[in-house]
Amino acid sequence: MSIFKYRVQAIFISILFTLISCSKEKTSSPTLSSSEISNNQHPSLIITKAGVEKIRANLGSIPIFDETLEKVKAEIDAEIALGIEVPIPKDYSGGYTHSRHKRNWQTLQKAGVLYQILDDEKYAKYVKDMLMEYEEMYKTLPVHPKTRSYARGKLFWQCLNDSNWLVYVSQAYDCIYNYLSKEERNKLETNLFRPFADYISVENPQFYNRVHNHSTWGNAAVGMIGLVMNDSVLIDRALFGIKGAELDKTAKDNDGGFINKDGKAGFLANIEEPFSPDGYYNEGPYYQRYAMYPFLVFAEGLNNVKPEYKIFDYKEGVLLKSINALLNLTDADGDFFPLNDGQKGMSYYTSALVTAVDISYKYGNKDPGLLSIAKEQNRVLLDDSGLAVALGIKNGETKPFNKKSINLADGPKGTQGGVSILRNEDIELVFKYAAQGSSHGHYDKLSYSLYEKGEEVLQDYGLARFVNIEQKGGGNYLKENKTWAKQTIAHNTVTQNETSHFEGKYEIGSKHHSILHYFSSENENVHVVSAKEDNAYPGTEMLRTMAIIKDEDFEKPYLLDIMKITSSKANQYDFPFYFFGQVLAANFEYNTPKTLKALGSKNGYQHLYLEGSAKPKNNNTKFSWLNKGKFYSLTSVANTNDEILFTRIGANDPDFNLRREAALMLRRKNTKNTTFVSIIEAHGNYSPVTESAVNSNSSIKELKVVIDTIDYTAVTITNEDGKTKLFITSNINASKDAEHILKINDTNYQWTGTYYFK
Amino acid sequence: MSIFKYRVQAIFISILFTLISCSKEKTSSPTLSSSEISNNQHPSLIITKAGVEKIRANLGSIPIFDETLEKVKAEIDAEIALGIEVPIPKDYSGGYTHSRHKRNWQTLQKAGVLYQILDDEKYAKYVKDMLMEYEEMYKTLPVHPKTRSYARGKLFWQCLNDSNWLVYVSQAYDCIYNYLSKEERNKLETNLFRPFADYISVENPQFYNRVHNHSTWGNAAVGMIGLVMNDSVLIDRALFGIKGAELDKTAKDNDGGFINKDGKAGFLANIEEPFSPDGYYNEGPYYQRYAMYPFLVFAEGLNNVKPEYKIFDYKEGVLLKSINALLNLTDADGDFFPLNDGQKGMSYYTSALVTAVDISYKYGNKDPGLLSIAKEQNRVLLDDSGLAVALGIKNGETKPFNKKSINLADGPKGTQGGVSILRNEDIELVFKYAAQGSSHGHYDKLSYSLYEKGEEVLQDYGLARFVNIEQKGGGNYLKENKTWAKQTIAHNTVTQNETSHFEGKYEIGSKHHSILHYFSSENENVHVVSAKEDNAYPGTEMLRTMAIIKDEDFEKPYLLDIMKITSSKANQYDFPFYFFGQVLAANFEYNTPKTLKALGSKNGYQHLYLEGSAKPKNNNTKFSWLNKGKFYSLTSVANTNDEILFTRIGANDPDFNLRREAALMLRRKNTKNTTFVSIIEAHGNYSPVTESAVNSNSSIKELKVVIDTIDYTAVTITNEDGKTKLFITSNINASKDAEHILKINDTNYQWTGTYYFK
């Protein structure tokens, strides 16, 4: 991506200026006159005339492309054999008509490229015939009968899905454009495409004129069809939003997000606002993945048809940077970290990421690491970018995509907190200190999840939804998403007085963000991130410092977690660890109740059963468990007044919408200032085949806080062999160059920078 | 294995006679005089002098052998570099001294074969040095300090592990026999091997003189060292048990099994008793796997040193048949079905099965299907049989090991019930109607578990134990094994009046077995097994007929389950379905309690929480769930008085020893005769990557009992397209040739055999 970074800034500024000036002109008429638009060659969006020729010339010698082509051909031939079905819209997601129209958009897009690549008219005819059926139906189609959406579509229950349809179908239309007669094109454009584009935009500004992933789809849909139709009005509307649209700034969508609080709209605003300069998308990777497709295909189309816009350079090349960020937001298996509302299991194997990787490769700096991901994906786009990837692989240019520790700032200018990922060997920590994340944000400041080799060690619950599974609330968000998944107690962070951060209110949460204290990954063995949050609970300051430490005296890198809380009044702090698997051992005696009751009545606590309780017996609370053949231990500095609770999700869940998963929770009552210090070790393994348990015990003998002042927190870690290490973090001065001297037990420790470890 | 079946019977009988006559002679002195024993060539047990030459000649050209050799060499070289450790015994399983001595036996055995194959003295020296350290320690070693075992060992807490040690170490001794001087051999035999063999046999007859997997290890250990030492007393004791040992016939072992109720003992009795003629091992596959190694290595040694015994022909070749049975008792991933006490995850990748597959290949009929399993195992024994497998693979003889529907009779004569496995496409049903299964048996007559492609759909809980994980009860059986895992309610079968089969008493259960009614797998699309149980609840007869049906109108084969109960008095019947995953939908309204309480106070019920309850609303109870991306539906013929309970395991589990897993339970109260009829469908799929839900609904519109008499039960299955199929099972006449005529709703159905389906 560095090519973009170092482009001559003057060019960039001039383009930006063009875009801004266009934006200003567009109040009364299309800003781009027809003469400004490139000659109307087809196809031109994602597959170009030149690309088609190159693809045809290489066919049979580019294995990954050839295999993808073969599979897609088989799939589409089977669809064609089944015949065309264009049912009257009726269902929510997961229902028949929804699924059918969704499949149709996919089939149309694929049939279009097959026509171009294979030059077989049967595909063009199929696309034409189906489009004509849509034309016939659409011209008299009322709004979709299902009423739940804030922006009902026509083919689907929400404009969002109508937009999905148009983004794909524009590509199909582009592919058969020259196959159709002028009259046929006229018919389709007049009765289907233009009214379709108008419906999802000017007729639904509350959907279209926002900064939101929904709107991105809408913008791209309008822009894509505009590019094919050579319609500058539509292209303009796509880039800059609806001219003069006035929206209620206090209105909210179905997810509780503001419709359009600050009046920004259009594709460029949708790039500008949600992406940070690092390419982090404010809603999190799950929604970025969803939004990525329209961002990229429209950008690609725009790049091909209007290269003078240099869209891939926009905001210092943020679109391509965002793909790198997104790939870094995956675990070892390629699954996205389920920050905010994210369905677990979504991964870079999803087709949107095939698009992302291929486009990033072709239009970026030909990063050979992307080829290794393309290989894992085992398919490419059947277009110009897919060809580029296939040729790269064929020419042996593949290199591993190395994911390292990375800090991704959040916010349009990168100043609204962020997300850090610390990696060492198979251990990955995902630490969230970001902004609210729009309507899909959770109330979990300074929360984290921990992975080993792609397996969750301490989980983020993700969303409470079964996407597209009709039996579960129509496949939409379940009420438990609000009552459980978004609540603070559902996350590995501190809940104060059994109340969520920002009172669990979007209006408050969306005003604030945490602040990075420091991030350090220079030392190969010690990666540290530290961030603070002062607004989640007014009057309470939280500073969390998390380090992944590779110490030669330990089998695997461990997580050191220091959560320093300073408050103006006494509170109760709950500090959960959402582990998986089987309890192995504890160094405290616990009681298990005869009957299970809910731990509380609100803010997520109503969904937790109390399965056991204890008091610490030692200065350290030690707890071990076994999950999927691996051992884990938590060692936590204990306060004799602490309570230790065993909880399980599932109370007050009358539809069995929640997963019955466990946590160990530390509870510290009636406390103003305090510091939670813990270490999570992954260690050893167990195989049910060999039945041998290797290194099944924690290696930590003692964890101790030796200093805890406003300026410094210092802890010692003593292992079972008696070797002691000292970690000191600077709580105030985050300068990399600061010189520190600290006396602990008559020894002076002197160092430069944010932390000390030895 | 057919080679054994068709051997001239006379030869077999004469051998058997020899063995029997030996047995009779052995009351006062060794029956096999030294002169009868083959010349004392070494090595001769599992690797022979001729085998070594052949291996050396082929090295470098037999990939799977070469790779195994390389790995083993690397492993042993690393061990040798670490030095020898022979600690004073101290710990239970999972503890340091236990693990160390276990590793030593493995290292010794491997170092022995490396010496033979590589002809490098360093391995022989290592074996010798370690044996000398054992000799030094053993000669004054007291009984192991841990007292929990009914038969304490010396190196380990139980004689069983001492026997494991000797089985392996005998092989090591055999390999370096000729490397040692006569004095060295004399020292080892006098101070280590002979007292060791005596300790685990004559000094612990309660361990040695039984029919039990423990004793098999003991017998093999004594026999193996006897073969190396050319000691006919020991060989004799191995084959026939301890002469004149008198044991308390009412004594029990730690697992609650009788020590020696009927006085049988010795290796041959251990083949005779637990194996059915089909090769089913009475304790189930998990323990068969464990016992397999000593059975086979001692048999192999005996075959090599005393080929005249024709041990592999004994009991019509049952040892090799049992391997075929064992491989058939695995799911699609090679995991053993966890019948009785079985730890999940144990599979044919375990080293004992490498032994089994290799020996079965060499000494059986060179089944090319075994080569495909050897390939999956990706290693072979470094001996004559491993060479045979490696050569078979090298020569391209591999064929798939096709697991089909199979019925395995239980009992020494195959007359004590059995286990059936029905397979069609990816669906596997394991139906258990066996005898008690010795001390490791569960009280679960006519129970089943269901698999799809190696994933559990409806589970058998398995055991309540974490084998070798010291933190969990020393790695031994947990108390919940008795209070939960063995109880009837923990299984997918009927519990009457909240009491387990046979009152959960081993004394009663071990007297009885279920009876096969019929098994039919001739029809490619319909596989059926039917069995009855009259003794689990005196006065109550249960006949369960289970069919896996591949019907063109359904996506996948489904399970039809007909449980017919006839009782002399009114009872409560509980009928659970232990499913996994997330509840999707139900056609009945259920209530979920605010607090969770135990469902009962004993017989396993004390471990179940009641999570919900309902009454059927229709003639059919329908319940769907989602697990690991697949949909499942239960359709059950409902009685309006039925109760439907949602349960979860975990109540009264103060150490978190149990997995928190769910069941749906049908409860029918105050009923004498009744029939539970259900269908379990696997259907569709869901991918979190594509987020598309395919075929997520049951295809069954109605399931109906149309006839239910003493003679016949008939059910109709109507699918969503309105197509109806009729299944009739004959409840009395199990003849394959019987002609039946049955009038149902004025239509006459006529068929030959046990069931009708159309």
UniProtKB/TrEMBL annotation, chains A, B:
Q: Where is the Heparinase II/III-like C-terminal domain?
A: 410-663
* Pfam families given in the database record: Alginate_lyase, Hepar_II_III_C
| UniProt keyword Manganese present | no
- Describe the location of the Alginate lyase domain by residue ranges: 111-333
Annotated GO CC locations: periplasmic space
Gene Ontology molecular function, alphabetical? lyase activity
Signal listed as a keyword:
yes
Q: Where is the signal peptide?
A: none
Q: Which InterPro entries does the record match to this protein?
A: Alginate_lyase_dom, Chondroitin_lyas, Hepar_II_III_C
User: Where found in the cell?
Assistant: Periplasm
Which UniProt keyword terms apply here? Lyase, Periplasm, Signal
The primary location reported for this protein is periplasm
Superkingdom of source = Bacteria
| PANTHER family named in the record | HEPARIN-SULFATE LYASE
Q: What is this protein called?
A: Uncharacterized protein
Q: Which organism is it from?
A: Patiriisocius marinus
